[in-house]
Amino acid sequence: MTYLPLWFIPLFPLIGTILLGTIAVVSSGAKKGPSEGLVGTLAVLFPALSFAVVAILACTMPEAGIRETLCNWIDIPLFRADIGFLFDGLSRIMLLFVTGIGSLIAMYSIGYMHGDRGFARFFAYINLFLFSMIVLVLADSLLLTFLGWEGVGLCSYLLIGFWNQDIKNCKAANKAFIVNRVGDVGFLLGMLTLVTIGGSSILNYDGLAAFIKMIFGADMVSEVVIPLSLAGILIFIGCTGKSAQIPLLTWLPDAMAGPTPVSALIHAATMVTSGVYLLARLGLMFSMLDYVLLAITFVGMFTALWAAIAGLLQNDIKKVLAYSTISQLGYMFMAAGVCAFDASIFHVFTHAFFKAALFLGAGAVIHSLAGEQDMRRMGGMINKTPVTACVMIFAFLAIVGFPGFAGFWSKDLILERIFVSGPIVGPLVYVVGLATAVITAVYMGRLIIMTFFGKYRGSKESEEHIHEAPAVMLIPMVILAFGAIFSGYLWADSIGITFFRDSMASVVGPAQALYASTNAVSHVNPVIFAALGTVAALAGMFIAWKVFIRARIIGVKGASTVPEGSAASWTFLWDYIHCAFIAGVNILAWFCDVVVEKVLQAIQWTLAAIVEILGDGASVLQVRKVRLQLAFSIAGVALLVMLVVFSGGLV
Amino acid sequence: MLLHLLVIAPFVAAILMVLNSREDSSASSRMAILMGAAFTAMSVALIVTGNQATTPMEWFHIPGTRGPVYYYLYAHGLGTWMVFLSCGLSLVALISARCTTGKDYRNFAIGIFALMGAMNGTFLAADAVLFFFFFEAMVIPAAILIAGFGGEKRTTAAMTFAIYTLVGSAPMMVALWYLLTIADNFLLLSMAVAIQSLPPYQQDLVLLSFLLAFVVKTPIFPFHGWQAITYSEAPAPLSAILTGAMSKAGVFGFIAWVLPIFPMNLNYISGLMWLGLLTAVYGALMALRATDGKRLLAYSSMSHLGFAVAGVFSLSEAMLPAVLVLLVAHGISAGVQYFLMGVAERMTGTRNITEMGGLSGKNPVFSFLFGTAGVMALAVPGTAGFVGEFTVLLSLWDLGPLPALVGGFCLILSATYVLRFIQKVIFGMPAREYQEGTRTTALEGVSFGTMLALLLAFGLHPAFVTNSLHLFDEVATEETATELVEEVAEPAEEHLMTAEELRELDSTLAASGFSEEERKALLTQIQSIEKVDSVEVQDSTEVQDSAVVQEPAVETDSAAAQVETPAVETEKTEASENE
């Protein structure tokens, strides 16, 4: 049976990028921007086409997946890499929601970016982002994944700094790129470690699986486990950068400086989850590395807890959501840390819906308030923007894990898997995870209450302008809200639906079986976890209701309505630790510039001065008396002759 | 023929430029650009047609040496690509300079053509003296151009540049001369053979003087004193050529001359690798603090070339293609960055990046090109820079994790300074009011766009570049290997006379009526010749082996390192036993 070629999937956004980029550059000189209708149509059309291809392939895909090698990329001694694509259960689910949600958010952006001078440029970037993200997910080797990996980082940089007239946005963009670069170097070195262990073919995912089978077959596990652990740790550093985990989490809150659809698409639904994707993709390797897994679990746990607490203290609506994203990513890493890759990807999947819905809702609120992001100046919006409010409340119920909503299924699944993973660590992490769920409900409840309930706290004149978002923005929001409610039913363990797990079993199954074979897994009734999760959600919502519905929130006056782009906000001191590193580099640079460079110059000057002085001295001999000159000449010739004679003649 | 054209014709072109009127810059610029395009086309033809050589011609005879100096050119993968860089960048420089040099365009073009000829000669010369001649000749037109068209401190810059680089290569001249008195001629192989006959300390001395010339040219810390002022004071199109093509002469010298001549005595390998890494970090740190845009690019260039030198002296199997791709990528990306910086300087009237800003709103096309060029300099995957840096990192990782870690640190630093550069120049609001100069012209835009497209093409399909190194073409290696074996084996077999053959000879001699004594004398004579011959044959093969193959040296090094570890272990066990 023949399938549609896989390269169709990235091709469409690439065409979109080129077309829109050309339009953007050509029209940039003109007084009036290009037609928004045309640009908007193109911008949604290409991602949608890509989604259609993915959907067709998803239905016709065989169990083992489709593999396609396009051409050779690098071919030198010691190293060889091909450009090839791999479409299997894992990349299928990722691609479905990347292209699907990507198309929806592109559509939403038509309304959100209406009237912006960089309209075409924005959609060129969005298409470039989708292209890179598709390459990241669809690649069949680590090196090609890395191409997409840096590509999405680049697009993230471009889009965070989209309104580049404001230097604060640019600084936030720079921060995002540089922090990600630190992670990327980890990824790069991790790849190099792998190459030294198993040659360049190991970078291919199939090659890696074959390699691991080979070492199990040859019983050489103990010999390669240390270099493999090193590779695992380095690649995990890459994942912490892209997925904003400790210690590289500081860039994500600042990244909210970009337009809100960007935050929804890149910094909530797709790009930041690529770290989780990579862990699942390399599941077989990670399942051998017990200590690395332990590190991943704890990093995920601390990040989840930490970001949830930080989320409690934010006043900027987008920052709350940013910390909430970090916290939810922490859950996914916890799951990956106990080798529950299907559960972590399931949470990626449901999270993409409800977090995108939350962000788009927040975007609609900001849009209706003409750019206001401070929750202290909102309130009572439920009457003015009812659809937005409903969407956000559904998504809120999903994120806190209210029974029946998407987050309920995926989060409880993760907590269950963590609990049963081991004797001591499992319950400990479980308790922290449950506590985090309570806090999640509190800060999300606070967000909903401060935005939609109570009385409007902004200025009188701005109140009159509040309006519901246009249909082009509402339709994607409503679709996502449906996803936030129902996407969890793809894998509802308690009522016996395991469709999602089965669809991925062929990819992550071996890794999880390997892990399960070494770690005792006791079976516990899933209903207990569901009940505990429900209690946590309800408790959190109750606390939020009690505390915030009556709290007098003082509307700030006079302060800037625009959130600060790169101010060191509350990332549990990690910003300060990063600053210490930066200061170290700056001091080093200062030392090079002011001390070393000057010393070198001084040495140069000294040499030149000595030569000059000698030259001055020699010019004294240049006298005008002919006889003296002649004497010098004769003496010189005599000296040369003697030299020649005594040294044994010419060569 | 192509080789002769590429080396000699630029000088002819320079002379032809004199025919133009000094006043009318449009006519002279058209002629210059046409000729530049012709040279670029020729360099592309050279890449396409592959490796070739001219017939050696005797040029002159240096008294006291044993052989003549040849005018002998040959193109191998590395040199070919450097020639492409020199021709292509010169063409773009000629295009870009139209807006800045004004009436003096004719003289500028004369200088550029002379520089191009000298650079092509450097990259194509097969004879050491010829190479050195061009290597020094490059400095003169460059210095004159700086002095004539540079910024405020142009005379200082020109003097610093000329004196520093000429003094740096003076020891090499002496060493070369000394080598010439013992070598048969000045081609690579005979020099490599000759160096083996010297005592070790003299070999090291000669090696050091060679290294110094290239280290200064590259430049490597701490010999970079001339670089920042030269690149920042030179007119931007010239800076682009200097960093994109001329500075490559240093790295080229390491690969094409130092490694083949001194395969046995590279005790400085690891030292130079570390010096390269130090340069990479130092350059990046200096770029982090620079406020002069051209100075920033100069340090960034220094950082990248330091990285390339570290890659060269990692001496791994992947070194040559890795470094070649890195050099080509850096040549194009640094070149286009300099050109764009020149445009920015022209438009805003300053080189100080803290006084720029906001160009993205005013000049979107320029900003698009500038931003793209910056991103490509970051070695984002998919661009040629990534392939180069990744493979060089791979070579460094061969030596151990620490060099690769330092390399990775450089990657982070490069992101930092490039992003800062982009932000200061095109983002934010304009820092001050200014009279806007000439914007990017269409021809400029197209040529910069082409350079960026080339970077993408080489990044996605580096085989364009690496295939020109036929070193690892399997068919070719097999052919040469069998040829070598045949060459070596056949004469040896011819001379070996078996006992049977001797007996036959003896009988034929007896049959033709020679006496007993006569026959014995003849046979002993034959046998003695036989011995000498076979010994000689063995000798020559040994020498050939050592000269042609450089890897064994490296392998033995690593083998030695491997041997060391067990030794340490045994010591440990002994110690524990003693306890």
Helix-strand category of chain B: mainly alpha
**What spatial form of chain B do the alpha-carbon principal axes imply?**
elongated
Stretches with pLDDT under 50, minimum 5 residues of chain A: 558-568
N-to-C span of chain B = 76 Å
Side-by-side strand order of the widest sheet of chain B? 1-4
Order of helices and strands of chain B: HHEEEEHHHHHHHHHHHHHHHHHHHHHHH
The tally of beta strands of chain B, per DSSP, is: 4
Order of secondary-structure elements of chain A: HHEEHHHHHHHHHHHHHHHHHHHHHH
Low-pLDDT residue intervals, each spanning 5 or more residues of chain B: 490-494, 537-579
Biggest interchain interface, per-side counts:
A-B, 55 and 56 residues
Please summarize the sheet with the most strands of chain A.
2 strands, antiparallel
Tell me the fraction of residues in β-strands of chain B, as a range.
under 5%
Give your account of this protein's structure.
The complex is a heterodimer of chains A (651) and B (579). Chain A has helices at residues 8-27, 36-60, 89-112, 119-138, 142-160, 167-198, 205-217, 221-242, 251-254, 260-269, 274-281, 283-286, 290-312, 317-337, 341-368, 386-400, 406-419, 425-452, 460-464, 471-486, 499-518, 526-548, 574-620, 626-646; strands at residues 66-76, 79-87. Chain A is mostly helical and 651 residues long. Among the domains of chain A are: 1-140; 250-557, no CATH class. Chain A has a two-stranded antiparallel ribbon. In chain A, helix 1 (8-27) packs antiparallel against helix 4, helix 14 (317-337) crosses helix 17 (406-419) and helix 15 packs antiparallel against helix 16. The longest helix of chain A is centred in the C-terminal third of the chain and has 47 residues, at 574-620. Chain A is globular, with a radius of gyration of 31 Å. Residues 558-568 of chain A have low confidence and may be disordered. Chain B is mainly alpha-helical. Among the domains of chain B are: 268-472, no CATH class; 476-578, no CATH class. Chain B contains 25 helices and 4 strands. Chain B has helices spanning 2-17, 25-49, 77-96, 105-124, 128-137, 139-149, 154-182, 188-196, 200-217, 227-233, 236-246, 248-261, 269-289, 293-312, 319-348, 359-362, 364-377, 384-399, 401-426, 442-460, 463-466, 474-495, 499-511, 516-548, 551-578, and strands spanning 52-53, 57-60, 69-71, 74-75. In chain B, strands 1-4 form a two-stranded antiparallel ribbon. A two-stranded antiparallel sheet of chain B has the order 2-3. In chain B, helix 2 runs antiparallel to helix 3, helix 12 packs parallel to helix 14 and helix 13 packs antiparallel against helix 14 (293-312). The chains are: A mainly alpha (651), B mainly alpha (579). Chains A and B meet through strand 1, helix 5, helix 6 and helix 23 of A and helix 13, helix 17, helix 18 and helix 19 of B.
